[in-house]
Amino acid sequence: MIKKMHDIGVRSEHAYIAAFASIGLTVVAWATSLNAEPGTGVARADRWGIFVGEWAPTFFGLGLALSHYEQQDGTLTATVHDLHERREAI
Q1: In Å, how far are 7, 34, 55, 58, 59 from 70, measured between CA atoms?
Q2: Contact at 8 Å (CB) between 56 and 26?
Q3: Taking the model in full, what pTM does it have?
Q4: Number of neighbouring beta carbons within 10 Å of residue 57
Q5: Domain range for 59
Q6: In this predicted model, what pLDDT tens digit does every residue of 74-83 receive, in sequence order?
Q7: Closest-CA residue to 59 (of 69, 67, 49, 47)
Q8: Nearest-angstrom CA–CA distance, 36 and 62
Q9: Nearest 10 degrees: Cα torsion 43, 46, 50, 53
Q10: Of the residues 19, 20, 38, 79, which has the maximum number of CB atoms within 10 A of its CB?
């Protein structure tokens, strides 16, 4: 699955961006649900926030898997590759 994702152009950076975006979307979903449905209370808003919040670990996991594949495949971006080289030099 990771190879297919990589072949269609999904890179680790894309997965990391999606993970951070889902964290922000969690707060937005919680606040929107809290304000849009005042009669339902905090419980419903919490459920929406938790539902969207569960996406972030999945995207982070995909990002790690794609990063590992990119390292093995040699297609890791220069910026990330430079960071790995600097870390190894320390």
Answers
A1: 11, 41, 22, 18, 16
A2: yes
A3: 0.69
A4: 11
A5: 2-89
A6: 766 656 666 6
A7: 67
A8: 33
A9: 170
A10: 19
